[in-house]
Amino acid sequence: MLRTLAVEGYRSLRHLAVPLAPLTIVTGENGSGKSTLYRALSLLAAAAHDGAVAALAREGGIGSALWAGPENGSGRHGGPTQGTVRRRPVSLRVGFSGDDLGYAIDLGLPTPPTRFVLDPEIKRESVWAGPVLTPAGELVDRANGAVRIRDDEGRWQQVDHPLRPYESVLGELGDPRGAPELLALRDRLRRWRFYDQLRTDAHAPARTDPIATRTVSLASDGGDLAAAMATIEDVGDADALQAAVRSAFPGSRVQVQERDGRFRLVLHQPGLLRPLSMAEVSDGTLRYLLWVAALGTVRPPPLLVLNEPETSLHPGLLPALAELVAGAAQRSQVVVVSHSVAFCSLLEQSSPDSRSVELARGTDGTVVVDQGRLDEPSWRWPGR
């Protein structure tokens, strides 16, 4: 399980270290940094696919993703406020520590400048054992392109070939012959799952009939909803699936029909003479059914990150959704980003292992409310 998420120099997050629990509820007003924290987790997952650089390019490039405030703070304590010119090396850093392994990546500007002006370079990476990076616990160290790995006897071994500036050690060196910890960490991050604003509009993929094939996890766009439901019925907990539907819509049930090699999901409701297809149900009903499939997956991921799952749901559905999330937190570590006070309260009531993290916009960027410097989780970045 992840214990700490650390971010530095990323958009509104100048310096942040957040404690994580089996169910972490991230709240805060608009503009407080919730979405950036969500993106920081997705950036870590992208590193395992060698996609961290491309992910930042899609956000507008390294220049758009950097902390936009002064390097030395706002000057609120009487010190001078910095101008627009940066004096220290540009650095965007994200990392985490867990029960067994930790990882951090440090990205900066290309040196020398290249034609790929939006792409940052990976300057440092580190993998370590234990809750905090220490010299004795470090297992993998990457400085620019040079990589060294600690062997079974604790001695550093230099990797023969250097990495390119856009290649991560997680993507390129996850080889059990040289670094079994890298393979384990890479596999873990690649199984993280993210859901952000599942589509329910009239042309949403979830309203169509997917190919009839086993689907162990719902796609990020929800297009294989019927196949995911069929798989839960086949090898998962079919009774829990129907119970989740009844919890939100008393007396109702879902059914997956197979026609010409495609699955069709329908909803039976009391008082109706025929079931409703997904093309006919309301946006709120479809969204809830998508969460039933996503959270009831037959292959729970190590980490499940949900961005505002309560969006477009009637308040009457929030208790049922909270129970779904709490149940998922028994099988996966879950991070929920939400601005709904009512939903967050329901989540806290539904899970004794939950932790609320409230973010606020301070003069020096995003802060955790009521978290002083001495309250922060222990954290140490690899130096350049």
UniProtKB/TrEMBL annotation:
- What are the recorded GO MF terms, alphabetically? ATP binding; ATP hydrolysis activity
**Swiss-Prot/TrEMBL keywords:** DNA damage, SOS response
The lineage's top-level taxon is Bacteria
Q: Which Pfam families match?
A: AAA_21
Q: Which residues form the ATPase AAA-type core domain?
A: 23-344
Task: Give the GO terms filed under biological process for this record.
Answer: DNA synthesis involved in DNA repair; double-strand break repair; SOS response
Q: What is this protein called?
A: ATPase AAA-type core domain-containing protein
